[in-house]
Amino acid sequence: VLHTTRPLHTTQQSLAPVPPLPEKGGEVRHGLIPEEFFQFLYPKTGVTGPYMLGTGLLLYLLSKEIYVVNHETAAAACILTVIVYAIKKLGPEVAAFADKLNEEKVATAVAMKDEAIQTLQTAIEEEKKEQWRAEGRSYLFDAKRNNVAMLLETNYRERLLMVYSEVKKRLDYQVAMQTLKRQKEQDHMIQWVEKSVVQSITPQQQKESIAKCIVDLKALSKGAHAAV
Amino acid sequence: GPLWERPLMEVRLGELHTWISTCNFSPQGLLAAVQRAWSSYCAKYIHVKQGGPAGISMLLAGYCLLSYGWNYQHLSKISYFRSS
């Protein structure tokens, strides 16, 4: 449970970033005696003080046989000579090699850091691009709204057309019915009239009309014979 | 700062007596003192970017002196001028 009322990172001290290592170590003279010793004796004895102290001490130790000269002294002398010679000769090379190793380590770390920063930068750019893209959503919604309006319009027109065609069908039906009825009435009336006329022709009239037709035909045939 | 918080190098000779009286001589205190001394030595001479031979050479010299001191009794008894 994180108490949000507790303040975080209020003090200066924190574990990162780690302060860098100092460039050079403490000063040491002749590889053995720290510089502080010489500085400590400088005000009282000047520059040669510590050396005199060292010489006197050495002579005292030797003369009083506190330091016994034995076979190990010769061995120590030879070893020390070799060590000092090796350090003087090969020191700078080893130092350069160690520095190169350090450089490589630091370079990989810095490369990682740069890469991380780069990826974060590209992520920021992508994010900004996405934000810009999100701004265009109003256009998207306008297009969608247009689509929907068009669908509604087409639907409305379709239904209008359907209504019109249905109404027209019904009206055509009524018109066809009326024409049919009138035609039937006409036909019926014509038939009835013909029937009554035919009935009204009495046999007397029929004979008379047939005789007149024969006479007319004879006259016509006479006329045709004469023409030929 | 106050006397009991100063390291040994910054204590003046006249105050040495009082400084020793304020020291913590229990095992934990001694252990802590040894730990402090070692870490300050390391920070000064070993954990640097460009250390030289000084760091280990001082340790080796100290070791040589210590071992000579421990073996002094034996070394002083060796006689090279035995007539045999």
UniProtKB/TrEMBL annotation, chain A:
<dbReference type="GO" id="GO:0046933">
    <property type="term" value="F:proton-transporting ATP synthase activity, rotational mechanism"/>
</dbReference>
<comment type="function">
    <text>Subunit b, of the mitochondrial membrane ATP synthase complex (F(1)F(0) ATP synthase or Complex V) that produces ATP from ADP in the presence of a proton gradient across the membrane which is generated by electron transport complexes of the respiratory chain. ATP synthase complex consist of a soluble F(1) head domain - the catalytic core - and a membrane F(1) domain - the membrane proton channel. These two domains are linked by a central stalk rotating inside the F(1) region and a stationary peripheral stalk.</text>
</comment>
<keyword id="KW-0406">Ion transport</keyword>
<dbReference type="InterPro" id="IPR008688">
    <property type="entry name" value="ATP_synth_Bsub_B/MI25"/>
</dbReference>
<dbReference type="GO" id="GO:0005743">
    <property type="term" value="C:mitochondrial inner membrane"/>
</dbReference>
<protein>
    <recommendedName>
        <fullName>ATP synthase subunit b</fullName>
    </recommendedName>
</protein>
<keyword id="KW-0999">Mitochondrion inner membrane</keyword>
<comment type="subunit">
    <text>F-type ATPases have 2 components, CF(1) - the catalytic core - and CF(0) - the membrane proton channel. CF(1) and CF(0) have multiple subunits.</text>
</comment>
<feature type="region of interest" description="Disordered">
    <location>
        <begin position="1"/>
        <end position="22"/>
    </location>
</feature>
<dbReference type="InterPro" id="IPR013837">
    <property type="entry name" value="ATP_synth_F0_suB"/>
</dbReference>
<comment type="similarity">
    <text>Belongs to the eukaryotic ATPase B chain family.</text>
</comment>
<keyword id="KW-0138">CF(0)</keyword>
<keyword id="KW-0472">Membrane</keyword>
<keyword id="KW-0813">Transport</keyword>
<keyword id="KW-0496">Mitochondrion</keyword>
<dbReference type="GO" id="GO:0045259">
    <property type="term" value="C:proton-transporting ATP synthase complex"/>
</dbReference>
<keyword id="KW-0375">Hydrogen ion transport</keyword>
<dbReference type="Pfam" id="PF05405">
    <property type="entry name" value="Mt_ATP-synt_B"/>
</dbReference>
Automatic annotation (TrEMBL), chain B:
<dbReference type="InterPro" id="IPR019344">
    <property type="entry name" value="F1F0-ATPsyn_F_prd"/>
</dbReference>
<keyword id="KW-0472">Membrane</keyword>
<dbReference type="GO" id="GO:0031966">
    <property type="term" value="C:mitochondrial membrane"/>
</dbReference>
<keyword id="KW-0406">Ion transport</keyword>
<keyword id="KW-0813">Transport</keyword>
<keyword id="KW-0138">CF(0)</keyword>
<keyword id="KW-0496">Mitochondrion</keyword>
<comment type="similarity">
    <text>Belongs to the ATPase F chain family.</text>
</comment>
<dbReference type="GO" id="GO:0046933">
    <property type="term" value="F:proton-transporting ATP synthase activity, rotational mechanism"/>
</dbReference>
<protein>
    <submittedName>
        <fullName>ATPK synthase</fullName>
    </submittedName>
</protein>
<dbReference type="GO" id="GO:0042776">
    <property type="term" value="P:proton motive force-driven mitochondrial ATP synthesis"/>
</dbReference>
<keyword id="KW-0375">Hydrogen ion transport</keyword>
<dbReference type="Pfam" id="PF10206">
    <property type="entry name" value="WRW"/>
</dbReference>
<dbReference type="GO" id="GO:0045259">
    <property type="term" value="C:proton-transporting ATP synthase complex"/>
</dbReference>
<keyword id="KW-0066">ATP synthesis</keyword>
